[in-house]
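PROTEIN DATA CARD
Card holder: MerR family transcriptional regulator
Chain length: 247
Origin: Bacillus lumedeiriae
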Amino acid sequence: MTMKIKEAADLAGVSVRTLHHYDEIGLLCPSRTTESGYRLYTNEDLEMLQQILFFKELGFPLKKIKEILNDPLFDHIEALQLHRKALLEKRRRLDQMIVTVEKTIQHKEGEVHMSNKEKFEGFDFSQNPYEQEARERWGDQAVDQSTRKLAKMSKQEQNEWSADMNAIYVSLAALRHHSPASEEAQSAIKEWFIFLNKMGNYSLDAFKGLGQMYVDDERFTKNIDQFGEGLATFMRDAMAVYADNNK
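Structure generated from the sequence above:
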């Protein structure tokens, strides 16, 4: 059984343009074409498309997905099992976030008391959902170093690492109405720079670029500003000052 490109796109929930792009970069080339040049996708092609979309959901860039799928040792079943584990973990974290949101609503309405610790239950930055953007902007080295170090940590160490990260966010949020160039702000943002470099190898330029992405990408902004409105912008400005002053 084969499908034309429009049928395959509709089935997978992607655009025809996306499938054209995958073909152009050699990520997913349809196995067959008609005499008139129309692309035809086989069941095997659709299985490959499913794998691509799973990897995209987990934040892998297309270049990396292509490398993985072209590896002669790639095991489809093993990959699906890993996808399942990752998605279940993602669902667990989302479920916890929903509980935190519901409890926060009740707290705001005066129905329950919520401790400061409970307000941040479910927040977990140990797995960066924007790994794709980081890899595309600055290459794999810093991100891969962070991933390897995190993978070697025990669950307790990962929790401590996440708690340290959240503590820095809270500290910076308390300073967000100060000048980003102030001594207090620069001291706090230095802690952030040191913290990031414990896990990876971020240059001053990469550090400055990361701060800009906190504002350019609304998903970053939304997550960071949960610690205090305007924090993402404050961090961007403080990171830029720190990078420029320490070159």
